[in-house]
Each structure stands twice: as C-alpha cells, then as structure tokens.
Amino acid sequence: MASVTINHARPLTRSAIWTLALAWLAVTLLPLAFVVFTSLKSQQDTFDSPVWALPSRFDWSHYASVLQGGFFTYLRNSLFVVGSSVLLIVVVSAMAAYALARLKFRFNKPLFALIIAGMIVPLHITLVPIYLMTKAIGLYDTPFALIGPYVATSLPVSIFILAEFMRQIPRELEEAAELDGCGPFTIFRKIFLPLSGPGIATVAIYNGIALWNEFIFAYVLTSSPGNRTLPLALWDFQGEYQSDIPAMLAVVTLTSLPLIVAYAFGQERIVKGMMAGSLKG
Amino acid sequence: MNTHATAAALPVASRRHRSGRALAPALFLAPAVALLGMFLVYPLLQSFRLSLLEWNGLGENSVFVGLANWAVLAKDALFWHALGNNLLLGLFSVLIQLPIAMALALLLDKAGRGSRTLKILYFLPLLFSSVALGVIFKNIYDPNFGPVNAALQALGLPALAQDWLGDRRYALAAVTAVICWQNVPFYMILFLAGLASFPSDLREAATLDGASDSTIFWRIRLPHLQGTVRTAAMLAVIGSLRYFDLIYVMTGGGPEGASELMATYMYRTVFSSFQLGYGSTVASVMFLVVSLIAALGMRLTRRFETEV
C-alpha cells in the first residue's frame, strides 16, 4: 500500500518543487535583468516604451559618463580601504586566535568569551562615539578613518573562525617544534600561519565582501566624493542623476560588477566564506 | 622532569625562553585587545555616558541631565513604534524567509549535482551592497515608472497599483519584501549544509520501511535540522533588531516614521536633529534589547557555536 502512495506522490511533489525552484529563479533574476536592460536604454526609451520592453538600441552613453565622472576614484578608495583592512584583520586576528587557541594563560577562557560576545554588538551603538573620535583625531573625511572601525568590528568573528580552525591543528607538530627549541613566535610563524591557509582565506573573503559593501560607517565618517568608497558612489550619484533612471542603474551595475566578476571566478569559495562569517548575522 | 638540569646548563637561553613564554600571550593579544578597546568597548561605554547628556554635538556646551533622556525615551511613542517595527521585521523575516529557504534547500538537496547552477544563481542577491539594492528596488517600486505597477496595470489590476514606498500602509512591507528577497539564499545554504549532514543510511532505512517523502521530512529530517532552524531563526531575529541599511536607503524610516527602526531613529536623532545625547540613549537601549534577546537565544540554541 505504502509504496503505491509514494509512486503517486512523487511526480506531483517533484513538479511542484521544480515549479517553485524556477519561480524563485525568476524572482531572483528579474530585478537584476531589469537593472541591466534599463541601464542600456536611452532616457527617451524609459518614457516612451513599457518598462519591460527591451532597449530599442543599446545606449552605452550612461556607462561612459559614469566612468568619466569619478567612478575610478571611488573604486581606488574601496580597494585601498578594503585591502588594508583585510590585511590587518588577518594578521591581528591570526595572532589573537593563536594565543587563545593554544597558549596557556590565566584569563584565556573569559577573554575568548568576551571577544565572541563582541559579535552580537549592534555596530550602530559605536557610530556616534567613533564619529566624535574620528573628528577629534583629525581623520574625518579621509579613507584612513574607515580602517580602524572596519578592522576592530571584524575582529570578533575573525578570531572566532581562526581559533576554531587552529584548534584542529595537531598538537604533535607544535610539540616537535618545541623540542627543537622553537618559541611561540617561531611556532606561530612557521606552523600556525602556513597551516591556517584555508581559515585565513575564509576570514579574508567574508570580511572583504562585507566591507566592500559597507555603508553606514563610510557614509558617516567621510563626506567628500574624493574620499568615499564605492557604495557611496551610488549615494552621491543618486543626487546627481535623480531623474535619469538609466544613468542611475548604470552606476548600480558598475559598482556591483567587481564582486560579480569575483564570484564568477570562485563561487564555491565565496559562498563558503560568506556563510562562515554568518554568526555575525 | 629534567627541566632543572637544562635550566642549570643553559641559564641565559632558558630564562629568555621562559620570559618570552610568559609574555607571549600578552604580545599576541595586544593588537586585537587595543583595537577592540578603542573601537568597540570605549564607544560602547561612551554611548552610555553620552546618553546622560543634553548636547547638540558642537563645542563644549553639553549639559549633564542624568537619566532625563531615559525617562523621555520610556514615553517616546516614536521609539516604541520603531521597536515594534523591528519586531515585525523579525517576525516576518522568520515566517517568510525560513520556509522558502527550507523548500529551496530540500529541492537542491534532492536534485544533487544538477542543481549547482541554481544554487549559484540564487546566491547572487547577497553580493549586492544595500545601497545598490535600495536604488534597484526604489526604481522597481516607482509609482510612475516602476515595473511593479506597470505589471499590475497590464494584468488589468490598476486598482492594486500603489505608491509602495510613499504610502505609510505599505512602506515597511515593501522594504521587508526586499530584505527577504536578499536573505532567503543565505538561509537556504545554511539548511543545505544541515541536510547534507543527515546520515543517508537513516533515510534509506526509512524509505525501505515504506515511509513517504513527506513523512521522512516531517518526522525525521526536520527534527534532525531542529538546531539549524533555531540558529537561523535567531540570526533572523537579531539581524532584524539591528537592521538599518535598506530601510534607510529606501524610505529613510518614513513616510512620517511609518517604517522607522531603532537604528534609523537613532541615526535621525543624532545626524538630523543633532540630539547626540538622546540619540545615544536610543543606541544604548538598542544595545540592551539586542544583548538580552541574543543571550536568551544563545540559551535556546546551545548548538550555536558548533553549528556553522
């Protein structure tokens, strides 16, 4: 009896599931297709033809004007801020993770718990004091203003990921090195850093993407276009191109492109990296 | 052991070695502790201190007002409305995102390798910055030029066309839809990992016993995923309590505060009304609410740490 029900139920549930899957694919891709196609329309097209009509001809002029309008300054700032932040995050969190995962000292466990608790702090509570501090030390409206907050707020989750990773590294390696007379610094540099490669990659990918898209600190701590990062390019252009929908969507496409390209090359790694940092929520 | 012997034989080296060992934890931790202290702990405490002041943020003219800001906040209808919106966002995030994510995860799990392309495409929304998504969906919801209203008109339902973001009845729901659109694939991947950890022999045994797919799902796999589901729900709720980006970009909390969240209210109080003291009170309460709910949540999800 039971096997009969399965045979009846299966094709039905299967087609229902596939319908849902394709429906969700449409839900995911249609807004993105709308962006790309509209960005290639002439402004006249957007008034004359229905929104879902394809462009009557591809009009690349918006892309040209955006690229000439300071886009590369934003891109350069993003590369600089995110690049140096990720480098610092990796070094600082790897050092801390090694101490917490492997060295014996009195407050190890409570310190680890405290740092992990940092993952749930809503970052907006730090916004006003960091804004005041940034003004006081004269870094306001420079790309450097972002690096400190970016590194610090990324540390809890990064230390967590790397400490978990380093706990898996066999103790025998460490003990052998100790017998050879290596101190903790050599052991860290020669054993833990090289063996933590995959963990470091995860930390770099997760934070790299989160910071690449970061909005609120960049918005509050910088103000002039020459010092702002890519997400802010969109914000600044929004005022400029308010009524020009295709131009606005060309900016969206251009600012989103770097990550999409990176994703095209390493989907698995990026998905894995972004999920690993998920505790931050 | 023979440490004494070695210590005696090599006094200098060993002393350097030992003091290096004692200092090592401090040296390894110093940069992290300094950065966390400066950009996380100090601002946190500072926020509480600022909450006791009345200050427009300019110059030295701040006035210590004690708990006056806290008393005002307790009766501030705008704040409670914002907190209510945070809770609504959390509730709908859980009710909308998790079931869709679970359904998609089950599909991908079943389809096996063939579903890799689907998975890759589903994940795309997570790569976009919230400003980009905000601009995209502001255009999509646009009452005059947006495809949503155009589609409703084409379907012969012009009565359903709305000013989605400009109408206080729909603004929060419209942004919530976008937040769900972006985050479903996140929970889908989380569930997919949970499903993959399901022992396949258990499933085979159940199938041999004649259990149907739906029985296997409800009786065996869903209980197995209980921990993952709880973690997901907690992440969704905490994420919603501290949410800021898309609401700020798409509606700015409006119209007339209709889609206000705690974080957007705090932002507006500080950077538009220049009430740094009161804004810091809002921030402090937000911190307390999130910590309290996160602590409760952690207790409910003891597998939290091993999960991801």
What string gives the helices and strands of chain A in order?
Answer: HHHHHHHHHHHHHH
The end-to-end distance of chain B, rounded to whole angstroms, is 42 Å
Q: Can you tell me the overall shape of chain A?
A: globular
User: From the structure provided, what is the oligomeric state, counting identical versus distinct chains?
Assistant: heterodimer
Identify the strand order in the major beta sheet of chain B. Answer: 1-2
Number of helices of chain A: 14
Strand percentage of chain B: under 5%
List the helices and strands of chain B in order: HHEEHHHHHHHHHHHHH
What are the segments of chain B in which pLDDT stays under 50 over at least 5 consecutive residues? 1-15, 303-308
Instruction: Kindly report the average pLDDT value of chain B.
Output: 84
Task: Provide a short characterization of the protein structure.
The complex is a heterodimer of chains A (281) and B (308). Chain A has helices spanning 2-39, 43-48, 61-68, 71-102, 108-117, 127-136, 144-167, 171-179, 184-195, 197-212, 216-221, 230-240, 245-265, 267-276. Chain A has 281 residues and is mainly α.
Report on the architecture of this protein:
With about 280 residues, chain A is mostly helical. Chain A starts with a helix and ends in a 5-residue tail after the last helix. Helices cover about 75% and strands about 0% of the residues of chain A. Chain A contains 14 helices and no strands. Chain B is built from 15 helices and two strands. Chain B has helices spanning about 5-10, 10-50, 70-75, 75-110, 115-120, 130-140, 145-155, 170-195, 200-210, 215-225, 225-240, 245-250, 260-270, 275-300, 305; strands at about 55, 65. In chain B, strands 1-2 form a two-stranded antiparallel sheet. In chain B, helix 1 (about 5-10) crosses helix 2 (about 10-50), helix 4 runs parallel beside helix 8 and helix 13 (about 260-270) runs antiparallel to helix 14 (about 275-300). The longest helix of chain B is centred in the first third of the chain and has 40 residues, at about 10-50.
